[in-house]
Amino acid sequence: MTMARDAMDKKVPTSRAVRTAALGRVAAGAVLRQAGVKVATVGRSEEKKKAVMDRKQAEAMKALVNGLGTMRGAALKIGQALSIVDGGIFPDEVREDFQKALAKLRDSAPTVGFDKMRKLIESELGGKLGDHFAVFDDTPIASASIGQVYRARLHDGREVCVKVQYPGIDKAVRADIKNMALFSHALKLIAPALDTAALAAEIRDRVEEELDYELEAQNQRAAARLFRGHPFIVVPDVVTALSGQRVLVTEFFDGRGFEAVKLMDEQTRNRVAEIIFRFFGAGMMRYGQFSGDPHPGNFLVGDDGRVAFLDFGLYKYIDDSSIEDLLVIQRAMAENDAAAVHSGLASAGFLPDPDAVDADEALPIVESVFGWMTTDAVVRITPEMVNDALANTIVPTGDSFGLLRKQSVPQEQLVTLRTLVMVMAVLGQLSASGNWHAIAREWQYDQAPGTELGRIEAESDWAAAHTLARA
């Protein structure tokens, strides 16, 4: 057995004491590097100080990323959450290096030896591996924050993915959650503008839901039913008989991941971006159910152009009145009616005390979140646009989010805003451009499709079935 295999077979540390020690080393390293920045800038010009700060900040972030990358559970989830966007908390000079370092966390994580994973699978499903699978490749095809994914073949010939939780990961996750203050301290030193309390709360909510694969299977079955037979959207079916609380088996989809898609030509990237927007946007504002985790690692692009969406640990339902609340605000934005925007925000519960906020104060917040999809023009999603939206909704750094926070925005609507901003962030990483409003008008105004993909969908058997269902 090689050293690499020995390293893989190490047990996941689950006790709070061990996890605390590991996180403490990450935090201590950040403190030392921040202290080094202060020493290095003493007596230097402002321009040289900035150069040193940028370089030291980049070094500290890479060290933090490497530290998180050796862990699993909530620790790794923090790194993966930061990998989507930086929220404007890092200077332009280090942003690219920062994203490259975090990309490794998005698509991979430390692995566990297959002997341990086999025992968990057999314990969960009962019997031997061969009782359930004709072929099982013991090399994982993907690793995530709380588990690994394998490829296998069932006795009936179906190719499947087998998602398996790391043994003891539930204890490790809860230990990390209790130690969240250590992460917050390290991140605050490196990125003072980041609202670490908001990030910690987000991580706590998400990882608890993701630990329950039975809930995820239920969510994925709902999404698969909704999009079954769709011409360009795929949600792999769940093999319910082989799924449990710690093992989830779904049909296999052969496709390329996010990093490969980023290297494709502009036309292909824009096409993929439109499909992503349709999946999340129409799910939320037409069908009332949507994945709340628009993460770059959660979709694959097939050779036939279809896009498969994965990972439904976080899945939300929204009622008709809440959908209409969102559409009223979007229509008011599209029609440049500031008074109607203010009225819509108040009706939706965004402004419990409407008199405390005038239309001019509210408009910039709404524009940062909805402007890209309420402007009738071709819009390229840029990092600056994403950062503005984040500053107002997810990474509160300015007065805008403070205004919303004081207004006690309904939790259900916070989820919708966050999801829309994260979709926007993914499109930004694809450097995607399009007339997003022309697409969104299909659900904003119930208009006929204005794009080729929209027409393909509208003319499909899938659309005909769903039109009857809605009727």
Provide the helix percentage: 55-70%
Q: Give a short account of the largest sheet.
A: 5 strands, antiparallel
Q: What share of the residues does DSSP label as strand, in percent?
A: 5-15%
Number of strands: 12
Structural class: alpha+beta
Q: Categorize the overall geometry.
A: globular
Low-confidence stretches: 1-10, 16-24, 30-46, 48-53
- Average pLDDT for all residues: 78
Gap from first CA to last CA: 62 Å
The Rg value, from CA coordinates, equals 23 Å
Number of helices in the DSSP assignment? 22
Question: What this model shows, in words?
Answer:
This protein has 471 residues and is α+β, with helices and mostly antiparallel strands. The chain has 22 helices and 12 strands. The protein has helices spanning 3-8, 16-40, 46-69, 74-84, 92-107, 114-125, 129-132, 169-178, 180-190, 196-210, 213-227, 258-262, 266-285, 320-334, 338-348, 359-370, 383-393, 399-406, 411-429, 436-444, 452-458, 461-470; strands spanning 133-136, 142-143, 147-154, 159-165, 233-234, 247-251, 289-291, 299-301, 307-309, 315-317, 379-380, 433-434. The strands form 4 sheets. Strands 1, 2, 3, 4 and 6 form a 5-stranded antiparallel sheet that branches. A 3-stranded mixed sheet has the order 5-9-8, with helices on one face. It has a two-stranded antiparallel sheet with strand order 7-10. A hairpin with a 3-residue loop joins strand 2 (142-143) and strand 3 (147-154). Helix 13 (266-285) runs parallel beside helix 20 (436-444) and helix 14 (320-334) packs antiparallel against helix 15 (338-348).
